[in-house]
Amino acid sequence: MNIGIIGLGLIGGSISLKLRKSNFGDKFIGTDYNEKNALIAVKLGFVDEIRPLKDLIVQSSVIILSIPVDGIEKLLPNILNTIRKDTVILDTGSTKYTICKSVYSHPKRSRFVATHPIAGIENSGPLSANSDLFYKKNCILCDSELSDTDAIYITEKIYSILEMRMIYITSKEHDLYISYGSHLPHIISFSLASTVKKFKNKKKVLNHMMGSGWGSTTRLAKSKPETWVPIFISNINNLIKAIDVYIDQLRIFKKYLKNKEFHHIDQYIKKANDIIKDQKYV
Amino acid sequence: MNIGIIGLGLIGGSISLKLRKSNFGDKFIGTDYNEKNALIAVKLGFVDEIRPLKDLIVQSSVIILSIPVDGIEKLLPNILNTIRKDTVILDTGSTKYTICKSVYSHPKRSRFVATHPIAGIENSGPLSANSDLFYKKNCILCDSELSDTDAIYITEKIYSILEMRMIYITSKEHDLYISYGSHLPHIISFSLASTVKKFKNKKKVLNHMMGSGWGSTTRLAKSKPETWVPIFISNINNLIKAIDVYIDQLRIFKKYLKNKEFHHIDQYIKKANDIIKDQKYV
Question: Which fold is adopted by the domain A3-170?
Answer without folding.
Answer: Rossmann fold (3.40.50)
